[in-house]
Amino acid sequence: MVTMSRFWALAGVALLAGCGGAERSEEKAAQDSALRVQKLMAEEVQPTAEVYWNSAGYVMDESGETDLTPTTEEGWAATLQSTQELQRLGELLQTPEYADGRGEDWIAFSKSLVEVSKQAEQTALDRDSDAIFEVGGVIYRVCQACHQVYPASQPEDLGQDGVVGTAPQ
């Protein structure tokens, strides 16, 4: 009888451990996904957007006014390439690797990034600094709208559900 009691006790402990492990595994997967998003934003999306944003406007400092419009073929090529890269990144953000666990609004924001980046591509092809400035503002607003729903968080600043970068319920 002692053997049968011991069996049921061990089975119960194993069952409880397995259940807790599944929950921890789901939490870990959600955290990993959020960290992938943070890394993509920090290492690719932000720097790529900055290339485009830094292709129009003016900077004023003690030495005077500097026009940010590209003046070389390489500068224009970098501006154009940034728009194409933003389109690719917007598409990537729609894949399950980045979209799983997020709402339909995540897909809508990602699609908006793709669409506005197509407009940005045309401004770069036209070499229209004023249009680059205007469309750059639209890109910024798309990013800000997304960040209102999915705020950038530090790994130690987990949300209520223990997941970084998930939309509030």
Description:
This protein is mostly helical. The protein is built from 5 helices and 2 strands. 71% of the residues lie in helices and 5% in strands. It has a two-stranded antiparallel sheet. It starts with a helix and ends in a 20-residue tail after the last helix. Residues 155-169 have low confidence and may be disordered.
Outline the fold blueprint.
Layout: H1 2-53, E1 58-61, E2 64-67, H2 73-92, H3 96-99, H4 104-126, H5 129-149
Antiparallel strand pairs: 1-2
The rounded Rg comes to 23 Å
**In which range does the helix fraction lie?**
over 70%
- Biggest beta sheet summary: 2 strands, antiparallel
Distance between the termini: 50 Å
SS summary, helix count: 5
Got a strand count? Answer: 2
- Proportion of residues in β-strands: under 5%
Strand order within the widest sheet?
A: 1-2
Shape: elongated
Q: Class by helix and strand content?
A: mainly alpha
Brief overview:
Helices cover 71% and strands 5% of the residues.
Task: Spell out the key features of this protein.
disordered C terminus
